[in-house]
């Protein structure tokens, strides 16, 4: 069934907001990865381990609390964080490997 023109207008308006939110998330992720690239170089320079499980545990607790307050599924917040951190750890390991080659 074709949507009514009211429904089409509402869908269009909601999609405009979704577009803005998706763009903001990409900008935020880009800034986060710039930051973690610097952390990766710092860790490599001082031969620190790529992963810090204790920091991850504390951050997961914190983010799950924030998610609950914001009515976001805490399990989803944790899954998102673990997904991003896994990528960060790959980056850290690559940076460490590159700096090993120059020592
Ligand atoms: O805080 C650090 O030590 C980082 O390397 C950053 C970060 C993160 O992306 O939040 C990534 C890997 C660590 O296991 C913990 C946290």
Automatic annotation (TrEMBL):
Q: This protein is called what?
A: Chorismate mutase
Q: Which InterPro entries match?
A: Chorismate_II_sf, Chorismate_mutase-related, CM_bact, CM_dom_sf, CM_II_prokaryot
Which terms does the record give in the GO molecular function aspect? chorismate mutase activity
The UniProt transmembrane annotation reads none
Domain (Chorismate mutase) ranges:
5-96
Q: Does the UniProt entry include the keyword Isomerase?
A: yes
Q: Which residues form the signal peptide?
A: none
What broad class of enzyme is this?
isomerase
Q: Which GO terms describe its biological process?
A: chorismate metabolic process; salicylic acid biosynthetic process
- Reply yes or no: does the keyword Isomerase apply: yes
Check the record and name the PROSITE patterns matching this protein.
CHORISMATE_MUT_2
Alphabetized UniProt keyword annotations: Isomerase
Question: Might you give the EC number(s) for this enzyme?
Answer: 5.4.99.5
């Amino acid at each position: 069934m074709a949507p009514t023109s009211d429904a089409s207008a509402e869908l269009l308006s909601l999609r405009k907001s979704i577009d803005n939110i998706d763009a903001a998330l990409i900008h935020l992720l880009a800034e986060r990865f710039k930051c973690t690239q610097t952390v990766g170089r710092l860790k490599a320079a001082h031969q620190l381990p790529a992963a810090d499980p204790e920091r991850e545990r504390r951050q997961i607790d914190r983010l799950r609390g924030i998610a609950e307050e914001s009515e976001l599924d805490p399990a989803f917040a944790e899954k998102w964080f673990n997904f991003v951190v896994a990528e960060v750890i790959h980056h850290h390991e690559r940076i460490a490997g590159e700096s090993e080659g120059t020592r």
